[in-house]
Amino acid sequence: MKALLLSLLLVPALVLAQAPVIEISGANFRPLPLAAPAPVVQEGADKKAAQSFDTAFTYDLTASGIFQVLDRNSFTADAKEGMTAGSINFSRWADVGAESLVKVSLAQDGGALRGELRLFSVATGKEELKVAKDAPAGEPRQLAHALADALYRHFTREPSPFLSRITFVRKAGANRDVYVADWDGMRAQALTKGGTHILPTLSPSGQVAFTSYRKNRPDIYVQTPGGEAKPLVTEGQMATGIAYSPDGKRIAYALAEGESAQIYVASADGSGAKAITDTPYGLNTSPTWSPDGKRIAFVSNRGGSPQVYVMNADGSGVKRLTFQGNYNQTPDWSPRGDLIAFTARDERNAFDLFTVNVDTGKVTRLTQDQGNNEEPTFSPNGRLIMFSTNRNGAAHLWVMTADGNNQVPLPMEKGSWLTPDWGTAPAAK
Questions:
Q1: For residue 155, pLDDT beyond 50
Q2: Which residue from 121, 125, 145, 122 is spatially nearest to 133, judged by alpha carbons?
Q3: For labeling, which of 117, 210, 227, 419 is most exposed (least CB within 10 Å)?
Q4: Where are the domains of the chain?
Q5: Thinking of the domain 32-156, which architecture would CATH place it in?
Q6: Chief subcellular site (predicted)?
Q7: For the residues of 145-158, what is the DSSP string, one character each?
Q8: Which architecture characterizes domain 165-421 according to CATH?
Q9: Is the pTM of this model over 0.90?
Q10: Are strands 189-190 and 260-267 parallel, antiparallel or unpaired?
């Protein structure tokens, strides 16, 4: 399995003032050794809020896949060391293998929690980044995600996934309920309560669409967090697998009628629905849009077993993409456009995750010998994949890099969590 190459490049002086940039490509993996001591808590700041901040900030950096976050137990620097370059003994940080040092101080001003982040090069002792962010005093995790995003952007020149949202299903007894949460599964909010609600997806505007059996039949509903669910697709015997186009103006979904299921495309409000597949007695399901909105990948058994296919958004130009295995499902198209992640059942009847290159058809295995791993969904920048796994018992949500490395669980409470969907990147501020 190929890993990430993180090589530090120097951008020309006229571009980004010679800031080091992490190039995430290639075959050799070397995460950036980063020291991130506990935040300095200024007088008046709440210590519990600081602890919540620290937990979220450290998790973001660890799960990102681009940093090697060093163990704090190895640190030899003075715990009372300051926030400025002149007060830091950089040799102590070099001794523990750090190449970069990030320091954060937290202060509270009325109802706001302010965080100041400073990044230093250990080799040169120079300050490379200084940024301050505010958040409501009761939302320290929000502040942590904002500062982690600033650090990620500094090194990669692209948005992190830390400010995005996810949706998923919680299984409890006979109930299946839809939730929305921060990218790490925290601050979760239930949209439904009781009954069977499955396969949620986030629209670019933040609405959640899902299949619900609230009227004793599977129809697609759409709901704004805090609002009421409204019917969106109520035709056919079963409507499932809704996916929004990248611009949010169209939806694709599967509609079952009789002995077949076809892929439909409609406007985001459900109007103007049109079938774009036509395979009598065949099943076509699980549509996912290409990042340019011009193509759709989907699952079809037209060749005898469920396989991943690609077609134009009007249904023309159908092309089979996977040929290995006899049960491939739940495709998700990377926002970067190059890969489609999917679930496949192997020869031992275990479910594992793979990617297939859209242009070459090359298949790469991401998980193996760790229970069942299903329902992959890409982060907005295409660098991470979230999925559901039962490797430690009940189904839980995990995240890994797009090549299958750095697999870590989301810091959620115990439960049975299923079918995650990662929302699009938030608008730039």
A1: yes
A2: 145
A3: 227
A4: 32-156, 165-421
A5: 3-Layer(aba) Sandwich (3.40)
A6: periplasm
A7: HHHHHHHHHHHHSS
A8: 6 Propeller (2.120)
A9: yes
A10: unpaired
